Amino acid sequence: MRALKPVLAVLCVFSLAFAGQTGKIAGRVTEAGTGNPLIGTNVIVDGTSFGAATDENGEYFIINLPPGVYSVKFSMIGYAEYTATDVSVSIDVTTPLEASLESQAIAGESVTVVSARPPIENTLTSTKQYVSGSLTTELPVATVKDVVKTLPGVIEHDGMLHLRGGRAGEEMYLVDGASLVNPIMGNNAIPVNPAMIEELQVITGSFNAEYGQAMSGIFNTVLKEAPDGVHANVSFRTSADQDYIKSEGGKNGDFKDADFYSESLEVADGETYRAANSSEHTLGTFGDPMSIMDADVSVGSGAFGLVASMRSYNDPGRLPGISDEFSSYQGKLTYQVGGNLKLGTEFLYLDQKGMYDPRFDGNRVGETAGELLVTDWKYALGQYPRTEAQTIQFGLSANYVLSANTNVTLRMDYLSKTQEDG
Question: Where does the record place the TonB-dependent receptor plug domain (predicted)?
Answer without folding.
Answer: 125-217
